[in-house]
Amino acid sequence: MKTIKQFLATDQQSWSLLVSRLALGIVILPHGMQKALGLFGGYGFSGTIGAFQSMGMPYLIGVLVILAEFVGAIGIIFGLGTRFMAFSVGLTMAGAAFLGGHINNGFFMNWFGMQKGEGIEYFILVVGLAIALLIGGSGKFSFDNLISKKIS
Predict the structure, then answer these.
(1) Which among 124, 122, 140, 135 is positioned nearest to 19, based on CA atoms?
(2) Is 88 within the bounds of a domain?
(3) What residues contact 94, with CB distance under 8 A and at least 6 apart?
(4) CA–CA dist 120, 124 (Å, integer)
(5) Is 57 a member of any domain?
(6) All residues at 6 or more sequence positions from 132 whose CB lies less than 8 Å from its CB, including other chains
(7) Transmembrane stretches, by residue range (predicted)?
(8) What is the full DSSP assignment across 5-34?
(9) What's 116's DSSP letter?
(10) DSSP string of 21-82?
(11) Interval 39-61 mean pLDDT
(12) How confident is the model over 54-81, as pLDDT tens digits?
């Protein structure tokens, strides 16, 4: 029980962790909704898996990516398993930056369609927020805090 309590421990008064948590979750969730549900012009679960497999990604890894971006983002927003969810999102985005070829497109996002693809600046921000939450925890107004208080 002590290990779970330590995993959930956070500065329960931290507004900066709350803001980081909400920013990361709100930015990642629509991407997860595209992949899991087909919303916002996405392919949905089976279409996304098919697209990933056509790129050589194993089925299980595709499922884990979808879970990280959809379930992980929801967990981050509500502060439920924040450290694990932030690790999952951070790992997924780091993988996308390197394995998805974004690192080959330079630093900047493709704002004006002049590059062959998106650069890595978005990924740096997402991974940075994920690392901050991994280190600091969930901050104010989180389920992690409620669960931690219940564990003796």
Answers:
(1) 140
(2) yes
(3) 123, 127
(4) 6
(5) no
(6) 17, 20
(7) 59-78, 85-103, 123-143
(8) HHHH---TT-HHHHHHHHHHHHHHHHHHHH
(9) S
(10) HHHHHHHHHHHHHHHHH--TT--HHHHHHHHHHHTT--HHHHHHHHHHHHHHHHHHHHTSSH
(11) 96
(12) 999 999 999 999 999 999 999 999 999 9
Tokens 């004006």, residue located: 112
Q: How many domains does the chain have?
A: 1
Q: Domain range for residue 144?
A: 2-29+63-150
Please name the residue that has the structure tokens 């909400």.
Answer: 22
Tokens 């690392």 sit on residue: 131
- DSSP letter, residue 107: S
Name the residue type at position 89: V
The owner of tokens 């409620």 is 146
Pick the range with the lowest mean pLDDT from 52-56, 89-93, 99-103, 129-133. 99-103
